[in-house]
Design a protein that fits this description.
Length: 373
């Protein structure tokens, strides 16, 4: 089918105007069952489908597959209320580009600027938009990091209730001097024990006061039946290679153990795949999802020279996104795709000179994106 994108001007609806139906899911730890089409050739291992439970209530979830995942931007109207239609339209645009899945409440999603209710609304809106346009099998990852074990578990439960399939969790960092390695390990195990959805470990030292989980720690945590992947925004490809080998990570060619060992940036997509990783969760995918997916497709087809050439362009575009941050990404979306809007304060408003600079920085990757089918 050819899914349509809802055509409506950005900012035309208040965030409370759209009443979304509740998601009929059990909000407590439960036995997880993979929802896999009989036509699928990618079969997750029993390891990732087995979750300890407080009861025997099954929760159907969508399996993660190797490829490109995009941590979506949260869109706001001029008064900083959520722009529901832009959130929905953007999710459908990404799905049509061929991404393997979408993540809400990541760093790009300004989760730290949202209330619990707003977090749930963003996730529900994304899930409903995908379902309505025929992408009901696309997995939805939800950022659930918090400073306490208790609130992190609460966020995981809210993620399930809102239509999320997996939780992306950062280590706690506010009381860094008190967080020894065994404390971090205990945190992830406690969350995984109680979460009703599987956990993906998020290693992003820049966001957590420099805490950088080692390959030994992540490999050990991967043995927990409810920890099914990791996102390495640390950019350490040596670490990624060690974890991929230790976990027998899923790749485009082989499901392996079905553990998802993913890079956290598009500028090392090809490197991730070459050393046995599963793909990437990348912010530049908001601007150029087709280009990011194309790298994986070329690698899978054995066209390494073409993949390398495209990786170079994507890496330059990714640097524009890294340097410009969320406001730069939104400015580029506004310039090249007609939507993007503002970030919530205290993030700054983009000036005209800054918008021109962002337009120049993103020009190569945005124009490439528009040429891809």
């Amino acid at each position: 089918m050819s899914p349509r994108v809802i055509a409506s001007p950005a900012g035309s609806h208040h965030q409370d105007d759209l009443q979304l139906p509740s998601v009929s899911l059990v909000v407590r730890p439960a036995k997880v069952t993979d929802s896999v089409s009989s036509e699928s050739s990618y079969n997750p291992s029993p390891r990732s489908a087995s979750v300890s439970s407080l009861d025997d209530t099954p929760v159907m979830r969508k399996p993660l597959r190797p490829g490109v995942y995009v941590p979506t931007v949260a869109f706001f109207q001029r008064n900083e209320d959520l722009d529901i239609l832009a959130i929905a339209n953007h999710a459908v645009r990404l799905a049509k580009a061929g991404v393997a899945g979408i993540a809400t409440q990541g760093s790009n999603g300004e989760a730290v600027h949202l209330t619990h209710q707003e977090r749930q609304l963003v996730t529900r809106t994304t899930r409903k938009a995908l379902n309505d346009e025929g992408f009901d099998s696309l997995p939805l990852i939800v950022g659930c990091g918090s400073q306490s074990t208790r609130e992190t578990i609460e966020l995981c439960r809210e993620a399930l209730f809102s239509g999320g399939d997996y939780a992306l969790v950062l280590p706690p960092s506010y009381y860094k001097p008190s967080h020894k390695p065994d404390t971090i390990v205990e945190f992830f195990r406690d969350v995984a024990d109680a979460s009703p959805i599987p956990i993906i470990i998020y290693n992003y030292p820049a966001a957590v006061a420099g805490i950088d989980l080692s390959s030994d720690v992540i490999s050990e945590l991967s043995k927990h039946p409810n920890i099914v992947g990791c996102k390495l925004t640390c950019g350490n490809t040596g670490k990624l290679a060690r974890i991929a080998a230790a976990t027998d990570a899923a790749t485009p060619a082989d499901a392996g153990s079905n553990f998802m060992c993913m890079g956290g940036s598009a500028d090392f997509t090809l490197q991730t795949l070459i050393v046995g990783g599963s793909g990437v969760i990348c912010g530049i995918g908001n601007v150029a999802p087709k280009a990011c997916v194309k790298i994986v497709d070329l690698f899978t087809a054995g066209k390494l020279a073409e993949a390398k050439k495209l990786q170079t362009v994507v890496a330059r575009g990714d640097w524009a996104a890294i340097a410009g941050g969320i406001v730069g990404t939104k400015s580029a979306l506004e310039t090249y795709f007609g939507y993007g809007g503002i970030a919530r304060r205290p993030l700054p408003r983009v000036t005209k000179p800054q918008a021109a600079k962002f337009a120049s920085d993103f020009k190569e990757i945005a124009e490439l994106e528009k040429t891809l089918l």
